[in-house]
Amino acid sequence: MASRGQVLKLFKLLHRTRQEVFKNDARALEAARQKINGEFKNNQDETSEEKINELLKIASDVEVILRTSVIQAVHTDSDKILLIPRKDLLQDNTPYFGKPTKKHES
Q: Mean pLDDT of residues grouped by 10 in the chain (106 residues)?
């Protein structure tokens, strides 16, 4: 059973993620704040346990997508965009070897 505490926890998590993902972008921060608040407000009177769990799953998925897939970009010139990835999005590159190596049998 989804408790009020679980809903509130996810609501706060979405807002923390929003603040991290859209840092220094007032317009995006405000748009995301309005969307999060609006979605939760539109469904605040929901009583169906199944529907509440479905909405919580959607909200959780949105938080993961925001945290793992969104990168900020800034127009630096008329034809150039500067990407500003967060440190948690950067991954180490794995070197590519054109020729497969042979496994040594023991």
A: 85 95 92 96 92 94 91 86 81 70 65
Distance (Å, whole) CA 59 – CA 72: 21
By C-alpha distance, which of 90, 91, 87, 89 is closest to 70?
A: 89
Element (H, E) at 97: none
Distance CA 62, CA 65 (A): 5
Are 22 and 14 in contact, with CB atoms under 8 Å apart? Answer: no
Rg (C-alpha) for the chain, rounded Å, is 20
- C-alpha separations of 83 from 29, 71, 74, 76, 86 in Å: 17, 7, 7, 10, 10
Whether 14 and 36 have beta carbons less than 8 Å apart is answered as: yes
